[in-house]
Amino acid sequence: MNAAVAAEAIRDFQETFTAVRREIGKVVVGHESAVELILTAFFAGGHVLIEGVPGIGKTLIVRSLAQALDLSFSRVQFTVDLMPADITGTRIVSEGTDGRREFVFVPGPVFAHVLLADEINRATPKTQSALLEAMAEQQVTVAGKTYPLAPPFFVLATLNPIEMEGTYRLPEAQLDRFFFKVVLDYPSEVELERILGTTTGAEPSTVSPVLGRDSAAVRVEHLKQLVRQVLVAPHIERYVATLVRLTGTEDTATRYVAYGSSPRGGQALILGAKVLALLDGRPHVTVEDVDRVALPAFRHRLVLNFAAGAAGVDADQIVTRVLASARRARP
Amino acid sequence: MARSAAPDAVEAIQRQLRRVRRRRNLRELQRAIYLLIAVVAAAMAGLVLLALRASPGAFAEGAVAAGGIALFAAVAVLWRGHRRWVVRQGAPRWIDRETRLGGRLVTLVEIHRRGEVAAPLFPLLVAQNVARLSVWHPDRVVPRRVPRGALAAAGSAVALLGIVVALGPRLVPPPPVVGAERPPGGIEPVDLTADRLALAPANGDDDAAETSNEESAAARLQEGIRRALAPAPTDEPPGSGGAAASDGGAEESRPAPGELAARGDEAGNESSDRGARVAAEPRDDAQGHGLLEQPHDGDDDAGRADGAASGAGRDLDPNLFGAPSAPGSGPNERFALSLAARVHARAGGPGGSGDPSAPPVARPPAGLAPGQRAAAAMPRMPVPAAYEAVVRALFARESPP
Prior knowledge:
The complex is a heterodimer of chains A (331) and B (401). Chain A is α/β, with parallel strands linked by helices and 331 residues long. Chain A contains 14 helices and 11 strands. In chain A, 51% of the residues lie in helices and 15% in strands. In chain A, strands 2-5-8-1-9 form a 5-stranded parallel β-sheet. A two-stranded antiparallel ribbon of chain A has the order 3-4. A two-stranded antiparallel ribbon of chain A has the order 6-7. In chain A, a hairpin with a 2-residue loop joins strand 6 and strand 7 (145-148). Chain A is globular. Chain B is mainly alpha-helical and 401 residues long. At the A-B interface, helix 1 and helix 9 of A face helix 4 and helix 5 of B.
């Protein structure tokens, strides 16, 4: 790839990203940074955990994303009685034309490009774990047989932080598989006015597909491949490694963090930074790119101890301190 | 296209990188040198000023303070230079930061160093860097080859030092004059020049045992500076009209410091000679002197016609103390006061004949048995060099009323 071709590829990425963001913005009022982070994770090949109170547009964002990219979309409402087979699919006995009966695999909702796992913390850990293999390996194993998932595969799970009764905390292994954790705040007053105006009219806004249905998956994979090609200098890798290490050794972290980030956190930092670099038209990652994605990449990967809860310290505060320490140590 | 051009482009980028780094470091080196020159020159100027104007104690304190400040400033300059020195590894990052290249240069250099030039986006990175070569051209990153501020500071400090050195003799405070001004036909006031007041160190003396070596060194340094910038006047008191010079025609040579202890007699001799010269001059102010002859160590046999010891002066002899000794350089040095001048009694006094022209007559002391030797005053006594000024002031003679 020569310079001109590379520049054209980056421009194509920027245009696609911007177009999808614009389409989502037609129906989702506000949450610009959250949408950008979700798209960043999507093009980086990760999954996103969205936390927010009910009614602020979590599901709408995911559905709009699927529509804008013109990808297949599934939604699973997680409940306490949801079983793993309800997600992955199951084998049923089917009788053939010749009268013979055999087991036939019926794919579950996980077999889609975009999967919305709504209120994922309401399902039992067993059911939650059903997503583990799909999220990490992009495949599902049912009755000893493995079924690959068609790329791109993107899981968006939502969490309701206020209704904790009858919920199950996500296991750390499950949390670690989410690329980013995005927190949706309440809309501002101006945004609220726009929401009321756009959602109660006679013609609600609709999302137009940015990519063609036939080529969408291929285009998305191509763009994801471009993301992987973004250059990362050794000093950036050192910086990310320092950040990951500091999540467990920084002064504040030592006091309040039981377990720091895993190496997956570092991977998320670099991949997310690569997407931001492309968005900025650069073929290389900078420290600023890394800093911008540090909070969503780390906040769900820190296991806080009791002292943190007692002191009212949350993961965001610790990540902010870690970033400040890393900046001071930067040459 | 770009892939084939990449090696040349990378080489051009690295060449410019080296140029910028070399230019920057050369400038920082100059800055450090100029600032060091400024620090040293300023400290020396301060030291010279202190040496010329301050008392020995103040000079010692000032010298320590000036030295400390100069040392601190020099260390600060060197530390700053060290921090601003651009090493080879850090040059891309420094240029990147200075010219806001967005990490392009440092990424290119590091990726190239790691050998990942086959990466698909590397040609684009090279192209972006080539397009920005003018942004970090050496003339823009390091606009001036010479650090003007540091150069001006160095020049100012050196100029200040030059001014101080040039004006050094004028900056020496006037010597304290002991005694009245010279009356018409009277004696010359004794000139105690400043270098005499700050004479040799007093350490080594039992009374000054607490004087530290540092103070001694400071005193030597101060004396050295003063001697270098404001040479000590000759033994002729200023304004003496060159009478002695015209009289003898030759200046007395100052004894070497090391010779002082051994040359106590010589000092006395010098004084005696000078006294003799002065005595030979026509004097109209010596009247009615009874002469009390005092033996002079080593000069007992060198009597003069007027009965005084050899080299003894008269009552108005300005060189009562003999030739000033040179400031000492050794800690145990002494100077010798040659109290060889004749002691005169005024008319009506113990020996007062009232006739100035009458030759002095030695009178045997009364009340002594024959052969009994009279107690003789000690004409010469070793005195610690540091006390010379005090002794001179105490023994200074005022002009006659």
